[in-house]
Amino acid sequence: MKFIDMWKPALATMAALVMLATGGAAVAQDKDPVVVGYIGSFASDTGLSTIRGAEIAIDELNEAGGVLGGRQIKFVKADTREDVVEGVKAYEYLNDVENVDFIISGSIDDVSLAWLERMAEYKTPTLDTWTSYVGIIDKVVQEYDKYKMYFMNIACDEALATLYIDFGKDVLAAEMGYKSTVLMFEDTAFGVSIAGLVRDLLAPEAGIEIAEEIIYDANTVDFAPLFNKAVDSGADFIYLVSSVRSQVPASQYVKLQVRIPMTGVNVAAFGQDFWNDTGGLGGGTSTLSPVPSVGMQLDDRTAAFIEKYKARYGNERPIYPHFNGFNAYYGIYSAFQAAEAAGGFEPLDAWVEAMENTDIVLEKDGEMWFRYAFWKQGEVEPRTGREYTHNIKFDVTEPFDDGSPAMVVVQWYEDGNVAVIYPKKFANGTFQEPSWVQ
């Protein structure tokens, strides 16, 4: 049975019970829409990915007869402009003006941190699809009652870094023979957080020493001096961490023919638009990418989502959703699956408990490919030995049979193609140094 079909019997039964118990006037009241709010950028690829993933899921649910007894879902939006002050205003607007029942976020890390306290005050169920800052999950762990309405539908950055260290150990060190790196990262919450994890883990676990650290302003437009400094360090490769205008260092790396390989985390390279955005100067860029990613084989249901996305948005950018577009699509289903089980988004405790028990498993060729479930309070992830309450239930240990992998590594080649290069279960390509480095 398709997941969408599972809603129809429940919706019909619930509507009949409401009619018998309360009469027509109450039914009319029940038909008021359920209001879902979006918070995030209206203009960025990541923001648009979340909006569109949510739109497709909401349309599917509405077309299937609605939710919670046949009610339609109304989708409203508030623009953060990727600014922390605007982000707080947007969260307040969704609650004070739109009276939302649930919020889905496409916010960047800094903005999510800014509105988090407002969320705790409003007690509005909220799901993040882009933000991966582990510090937010730590707040849920440490002050569960205050932040329990928060869920993160992407593996936190600590989980992402854990598997990237494996890539460093298995590929960069063991296969390529690299022994040292220059850690080049932007001055943002995301950049500093990932850099800290790499700093703490890369040398002891992968045996790769950090020869130099370069922190740069996110608005930097001339990377030549930074690349010269990296080359002069004598390191074997550059580890770049960039989430803001990250096509700039990628294209300048190619244009300047920087003489050492570069890998790391490049958010622009998560999207299919990356090649055009760099003017074809993206070859050689490899990056950690949360899943699902470009270049990755998809299960049937996710492939069907992509077909709907292409049919609806055509050549409008992003022409292929970033990972958070998928997270938004399945996040809407998780949230309403929980709402059906709890009888709505209120009382909050009932919805939170139901949300903690949602579990959407997607299979490919008879095995689990992706999983959308959440760590519960008190659960400990065995490899790291710590709790990740309300983070997506990631798996950071092969054979990846207990949850989605936290990430994959993808590489853009000089011919414009992109492939997954790590881990082996998902790989359809291999790590290659750019031709000018070889």
Description:
The chain contains 15 helices and 16 strands. The chain is an alpha/beta fold. The strands form 5 sheets. The chain has a 5-stranded parallel sheet with strand order 2-1-3-4-5, sandwiched between helices. It has a 4-stranded parallel sheet with strand order 7-6-8-9, sandwiched between helices. Helix 3 runs parallel beside helix 14. The longest helix has 20 residues, at 323-342. The chain starts with 6 loop residues before the first helix and ends in a 16-residue tail after the last strand.
Strand content: 15-25%
Strand order of the largest sheet: 2-1-3-4-5
Stretches where pLDDT is under 50 for at least 5 consecutive residues are: 1-29
Main beta sheet strand tally, sense and closure:
5 strands, parallel
What is the structural class? alpha/beta
